[in-house]
Amino acid sequence: MKFNARAHSNFALVKYWGKRPGASPDLNLPAVGSVSLTVAALATETTVEFADGLIRDEVELLDETGTPVDNLAAIERVVAHLDRVRAMASETRNARVRSQNDFPMGAGLASSASAFAALTLAAARSAGLNLDRSAASRLARRGSGSAARSLFGGFVEMQCGVQPDGSDASAMRLADPKHWDLNVVIAITDASAKAVGSTQGMIDSEQSAFFGAWVEKHDDDVKAMKQAIQTKDFDRLADITEHSCLKMHATMFTNKPGLIYWNPATLEAIHAVRALRAKGTPVCFTVDAGPQVKAICPAEHADSVANALGALPGVERVIKSTIGYDALVAAA
Ligand code: DP6
Fold this sequence. Notes:
By secondary structure, the protein is α+β, with helices and mostly antiparallel strands. Helix content is 35%, strand content 23%. It is built from nine helices and eleven strands. It binds ligand DP6. Ligand DP6 binds at residues 12, 15-17, 28, 34, 110, 112, 144-146, 198-199, 288-289.
């Protein structure tokens, strides 16, 4: 049968950056846990059908304009994930996959998170697997670590786990989207695909002299963030979010050679967010493996934050988003 799934992207407030030392790359185990917000405005929709008569997997990836994306590495990554599903379901047939993002891919907007969450749900159902959310999250993690979080809406925690087989490395919901009416304002400063993807970027960062300190202090940030979410303490959430983001980028800057995803407009937007906060607007920033700045604020401040960021030189466009809901799957 053919199944269609839709998953939202997510942005980490406490970042995942680094792989568990010595673990199999296929298990894709994170070195640290993470806490994220699911982003309603960015989504991937994927249809999968395992069918007789296909001599190989037929994978069609479409960008937000519906144009096919010519990206062999991305297609190979999809096929590797289909292999995992086939192995779990004892499925021998090849699959037809059609996947469309409604936002730029590979530009630091967590397209692999929504893409592998949607692919996991659609492929698993199409292969006859009935996975619960936690099992689907573990499978999605093997496609992309951040995808484990995109199975869930709202505020989400990813646990790095300790088991060698990754059976305890999955995500879970911390709070429903309605728990706290926060918005994300995304300032796009360059929508083109980045030269170094996050998988490679984090592996390189493990060579940084700062990487050990990043891992060592990480649990404190996760614990504090969970409390900030529970008590809806925006100042605390803002402080930890910016701290985790800047620490992650510090491990990138201090690779050899240093990895710098930021451009001048990224820095302009960071300063603009800080200036707004200094003048009393509750808002903070985070930046992932790309040059876009994501500002997080209570919903009632989203318009003024979007106006301020949209007016900056170098900001190409601004996307405003509410908090997203769970990924969904249905027969197509
Ligand atoms: C900066 O999930 O893309 O967005 O597991 O290698 O696919 P892989 O990495 P990926 O890394 C996400 C890194 C980040 C931070 C985060 O989302 O936590």
